[in-house]
């Protein structure tokens, strides 16, 4: 492979990575806790988009439980977002580990 072919391949991969990152920014995954009493939607670029709390989960006398449920739901959503990002980026990089990518 000559240098021109290599540069063309690198540019193609960069374009595919940019496209994948844009797609991930628009891909939403949901995490939940307590059977859906708390749900959190997160984009695959790790941004919280929505938090929904069912009325029965909001006990003013037990805020600690609600805080725990929100934390569990956020962590669940972030784990799903990281997994989706890793799969998408692996399809672009052919499974190569590229520093700085999810």
Q: Your description of this structure?
A:
The chain has a single domain (3-92), classed as 2-Layer Sandwich (Ybab, Chain: A). The protein is rod-shaped. The model has no long low-confidence stretch (mean pLDDT 90). It has 102 residues and is an alpha+beta fold. The chain has helices spanning 3-25, 63-93; strands spanning 28-33, 38-43, 48-53. The protein has a three-stranded antiparallel beta sheet. Helix content is 53%, strand content 18%. Helix 1 (3-25) runs antiparallel to helix 2. It starts with a helix and ends in a 9-residue tail after the last helix.
In short:
The chain has one domain (3-92): 2-Layer Sandwich (Ybab, Chain: A). It is built from 2 helices and 3 strands; from the N terminus they run H-E-E-E-H. The protein has helices spanning 3-25, 63-93, and strands at residues 28-33, 38-43, 48-53.
Strand numbers in spatial order across the main sheet: 1-2-3
Supply the CATH architecture: 2-Layer Sandwich
| Tally of DSSP helical segments | 2
Helix content: 40-55%
Q: What is the H/E string?
A: HEEEH
Major β-sheet annotation: 3 strands, antiparallel
- Indicate how many domains the architecture comprises: 1
Taking pLDDT < 50 over at least 5 consecutive residues as the criterion, the unreliable ranges are none
**Could you tell me how far the N terminus lies from the C terminus, measured between alpha carbons in angstroms?**
29 Å
Broad CATH class: Alpha Beta
Portion in beta strands: 15-25%
The computed structural class is alpha+beta
Rg over CA atoms, rounded to whole Å, is: 19 Å
CATH superfamily: Nucleoid-associated protein YbaB-like domain
Report the principal-axis shape: rod-shaped
How many beta-strand segments?
3
Averaged pLDDT, please?
Answer: 90
Annotated CATH topology: Ybab, Chain: A
